[in-house]
């Protein structure tokens, strides 16, 4: 059993370390930078020191043991004697970003701000992208499954797999997530084998300009980029999104009035005019990337005298565009070049 735990430590923290001695030595890179205590997550009464980069965190081992089998296994190893310092607590070097470790530890330990709920505590959860990314990557590495699932569930709210949830996410975007963060979400989807995140996230990437190639800046100064395969999906996806917009534009004003239309002849004439004037209208509606755009502004602009009856107007405002857009949503994975089982089914969104 002890040998298997030591093998686990070698796998996660580097085979060059001697398990029996390195747990008690803080420096990860002793020759490079002097270690500094984290200002937020250093507790004098803590019983575990984690070292990431040149930053030391002194925290409580109990929550980590309870939620991470990896930390539990590591801390089950016999610890060397403290010598002149019987109160010396174990030290674990981590080959991770200090920023990422800080985000994860805040989940378990409130720190100075007291704004982070406990790992399984219910309530509103509105993290930044950096928090989500850190929790998923570190949580996956150290087998903190509850942390990973909680943050994947949050991402599914922003990048859902069913159309109605997508419309809701468009109306109320999360303040700390920009469109460029979709680059990171695509990578997280691959990292966790969560393909249901890919279509909506890749679609967001398609709308980016040069950022889709330049990548997403990270707090440590590096950039997170898409793989060549995902870049290829975006280039192809852009053309398919334009095709979807054009298809919707030409079907929006097909010569069919609403059920119960009060003035069919008049409304048919207006629909024909709206179709004929598409070329002179808003070009972004006809050949833009946003195939889910609203059409009512164009209708109001071209039908200033409101010749359309109320039923036909409401049809163009909501019913017809949503029907056409829902058809596009059903084939979105194909448009983005990915396969997703159960796509569009809300019950399987977290799969």
Which regions contain 5 or more consecutive residues with pLDDT less than 50?
1-5, 11-31, 111-123, 347-351
Radius of gyration: 27 Å
Largest sheet: 4 strands, mixed
Number of distinct helices: 17
So what's the overall shape? elongated
Q: Strands across the major sheet, in which order?
A: 1-3-2-4
- Overall mean pLDDT stands at 83
Strand tally is 6
Report the sheet-strand fraction: 5-15%
Alpha-beta classification: alpha/beta
**How would you name the oligomeric state of the polypeptide chains in this document?**
single chain
* Distance, first to last CA: 34 Å
Structural features, described:
It is a single chain. The protein has 351 residues and is an alpha/beta fold. It has helices spanning 2-13, 19-22, 61-67, 69-75, 98-108, 129-141, 145-158, 163-171, 181-191, 198-207, 211-214, 228-252, 264-276, 283-287, 296-302, 310-330, 332-336, and strands spanning 36-42, 48-52, 55-59, 91-94, 216-217, 223-224. A four-stranded mixed beta sheet has the order 1-3-2-4, covered by helices on one side. A hairpin with a 5-residue loop joins strand 5 and strand 6 (223-224). The chain starts with a helix and ends in a 15-residue tail after the last helix. Residues 1-5, 11-31, 111-123 and 347-351 have low confidence and may be disordered.
